[in-house]
Amino acid sequence: MKCLSKTIFRIFCVILLSLHCFVKKSNAQQKAMYTQYMFNGLAINPAYSAMDEALTITALSRHQWVGFKGAPNTQTFSIHTPIKESNTSVGALIMRDQIGEVITEKGAYLTLAQRVPIGENSYLAVGFNGGLSSYQANFSDNFGSSPLSINDPVFNNQNNWRGNFGAGVIFFTKQFFVGLSSPHFYYRDFGSFNEGNSTTYRPHYLLQSAYLIPVSEQLKVKPNLLIKYVNGSPIQFDMNVNVLLYETLWVGASYRSLDSFDALAQIFITPTLALGYSYDFAATDLAKVQQGTHEISLQFRLPVKGRDFPRCYF
């Protein structure tokens, strides 16, 4: 088991260093991810629910670039649970993304995940989600009086709905996991408009990994890594280290490539209720015109009848 742990840790380090060297070539950033992505797993990978033995409910709200007019804000709500004594889990995810008073994206999805044991205390999980996404653009009320907007189809209001789906895979043990996903194959590309002013979408691909290092009974360290890739855009990576104190308080720090330095914490108010908060310090010129980004999360974990109720560190 010690040899396996050392091997897994080396793999994690190789992935981390290799990706760091590769993404240094990028000179721009992607749309910001959740700072507390490690506490909001179903929003990253539909296979995530297969890692958890509990009924888990998570709510998160992110308010970006406070003090900057038209800044984005995002909310997510998720619930997932294993099905009795099976290796199958189901869930639901609701998302809302808004940029000022102009653009709003919404989505509602159902998820299904299945895990398969492939060794001693190691599993491979596959997950899928499907649902509806909406894109609403209220250009006329905000730019309609501008001379540039007259008879310009780019400034027409939009209200589009479409089916959306995603998939993911995760390999995990008690101390390590690595996952690859495209949680929603269709994303709005805000930077382009094609003929007829229809909506353009691009899939996002996410690679996520974490490794739990038990230092003592009172102290555990967990490095996390999240990589995001969109065709035609620079790769974005998020490197994080969290420390768990007395099984009660997570504290950590993150760096998001060419975007921000972040501080975060999650406290377990009770064994089943956790409250999280993070603050992003901008690492770009935006730091001069805004007062940072706030993110708050609330999570419930409840036991499922007929199953063990172990602590979930991922």
TrEMBL record:
InterPro entries: PorP/SprF_Bacteroidetes (IPR019861). The keyword Signal applies. The keyword Signal applies. Keywords: Signal. Residues 1-28 form the signal peptide. This is Type IX secretion system membrane protein PorP/SprF.
